Amino acid sequence: MDPLLIEVPEEIHTERFILRSPRKGDGPKLNTAICDSIEELKVWMPWAQKAPTLDESESYCRRMVSSWALRQDLPMFIFERMNTGEEGEVLGATGLHRINWEVRSFEIGYWRRTGRGGRGVITESIRGLAGMAFTALQARRVEVRMDENNRSSRRVAERAGFTFEGLLRCDSLTTSGDVRHTRVYSRVRGIEEPA
């Protein structure tokens, strides 16, 4: 099937959060969250080596609208869900990346806004996202990768029910240019996920 014809939910509601695909006009909200978090993000995220301008954040959102429409990348922002059911502030982002539509495999990426830790924001969000991938997108495999030294990210994957598969030695570089090892976790249909 042509991926352009696959219906992908643009919103996921978990118990406490709303995950939503980017929209035109989301730039200021995203910019605030990134700028609040830049010091923590720059350690792990190559794209976060300097705070973006408002225009750069809006441009990113508009590019992601296109990537979503083409089913090349499926990013989602994580919003606090207000008592009214509406979106609150941006708490971070996640998404399905490195998509292989033939195999139906996806990689989940994520980051959390500084000062919003200890509440299970990312764990709950990636459980919801993985659930959508297995149900709506008929995923066979969903994986999470992280720097071997990123213990917080490792704990998130484990709490969300992903299984450690192995260590890719010297497979990429850190944001400072040093060689790093990457831990790979996954959920696979018929093993961690019901067939």
Automatic annotation (TrEMBL):
<dbReference type="Pfam" id="PF13302">
    <property type="entry name" value="Acetyltransf_3"/>
</dbReference>
<dbReference type="InterPro" id="IPR016181">
    <property type="entry name" value="Acyl_CoA_acyltransferase"/>
</dbReference>
<keyword id="KW-0808">Transferase</keyword>
<dbReference type="GO" id="GO:0005737">
    <property type="term" value="C:cytoplasm"/>
</dbReference>
<dbReference type="GO" id="GO:1990189">
    <property type="term" value="F:protein N-terminal-serine acetyltransferase activity"/>
</dbReference>
<protein>
    <submittedName>
        <fullName>N-acetyltransferase</fullName>
    </submittedName>
</protein>
<dbReference type="InterPro" id="IPR051908">
    <property type="entry name" value="Ribosomal_N-acetyltransferase"/>
</dbReference>
<dbReference type="InterPro" id="IPR000182">
    <property type="entry name" value="GNAT_dom"/>
</dbReference>
<dbReference type="GO" id="GO:0008999">
    <property type="term" value="F:protein-N-terminal-alanine acetyltransferase activity"/>
</dbReference>
<feature type="domain" description="N-acetyltransferase">
    <location>
        <begin position="16"/>
        <end position="163"/>
    </location>
</feature>
